[in-house]
Amino acid sequence: MLELPEGSWWDWDVVSWDPSRLILAAGHDLTYHHRLELHFEDPELVSCPASFQDPVFRAPTPAETTGVRDRLGTAPSVLIAFTADAGGPEPTEGLIAAGRLRVVEGLVYRYWRGELGPGERLAPWVRRPE
Q1: How far is CA 91 from CA 23, 51, 55, 58, in A?
Q2: Alpha helices (runs of H) in 31-125, residue ranges in sequence order
Q3: Which of 20, 64, 77, 130 falls 20 to 30 Å from 112 in CA-CA distance?
Q4: Which tens digit of pLDDT belongs to each residue from 64-99?
């Protein structure tokens, strides 16, 4: 089961996804910054909306576990399931299988900011203005 650090993790989105890593970001309002990232290394299966709110992380059901194992041919090292609000009439189910999970805390700005304090960084898409 996934345990998150103390904080206001209501708003979530995918900030980066390539064959080697899926990064989900969280905060109380993602307009200007986020303070939490989940780094799924070597994602093998991802069923996740691009943005969602108020997720409830839970243990995968036996059917989810069996379905992932059958699809991948082996049990993944990390299997995370959640139920969240993705803006539709019903809650959305998410399921992520990966080789490893890292929980990363820190202030990540989503806009250009020249002066960064200790532990602060810019989101990967932020570019210096011309």
Answers
A1: 21, 13, 9, 14
A2: 62-72
A3: 20
A4: 999 999 999 999 999 999 999 999 999 999 999 999
